[in-house]
Write a structure and sequence with these properties.
This protein is of the alpha+beta class. The protein has a single domain (about 5-95), classed as YaeB-like fold. The protein is built from 3 helices and 5 strands, in the order βααββββα. The chain has helices at about 10-25, 25-45, 95, and strands spanning about 5, 50-55, 60-65, 70-75, 80-90. Strands 1-5-4-3-2 form a 5-stranded mixed beta sheet. Strand 2 and strand 3 form a beta hairpin. Helix 1 (about 10-25) packs antiparallel against helix 2 (about 25-45).
């Protein structure tokens, strides 16, 4: 059974900002990073527990997978998965998910 995959507006903005920032140096690399992030998120629809529990939150519903140096933070609930944020590995997750 496939889970319904949705993106928060924050995660969508994160992806756009990542692509824009990387494209300043390399359109090719920006495209590769975005493609990898999207492939990782698509896999979650079939395997929602694929990622590890985010250590900063210690909540089994808040998980993450990695693409290059980015942490893809997502929430599992019922039969749905929401991509919550995409955070560079050097950035604090708590700040990225703050309202």
């Amino acid at each position: 059974m496939a889970y319904l995959l949705t993106w928060s507006s924050r995660a969508t903005e994160d992806l756009e900002e990542i692509a824009t920032y990387i494209a300043q140096d390399s359109e090719f690399y920006a495209s590769a990073v975005v493609r990898e992030i999207l492939e990782k998120t698509r896999a979650l629809a079939e395997f929602p527990l694929l990622g590890r529990i985010v250590p900063e939150f210690d909540d089994e519903r808040i998980r993450e997978v990695f693409a290059y140096s980015y942490r893809i933070i997502y929430k599992v609930s019922g039969e749905g998965i929401e991509i919550a944020a995409i955070v560079h590995g050097r950035r604090r997750v708590e700040m990225a998910l703050a309202p």
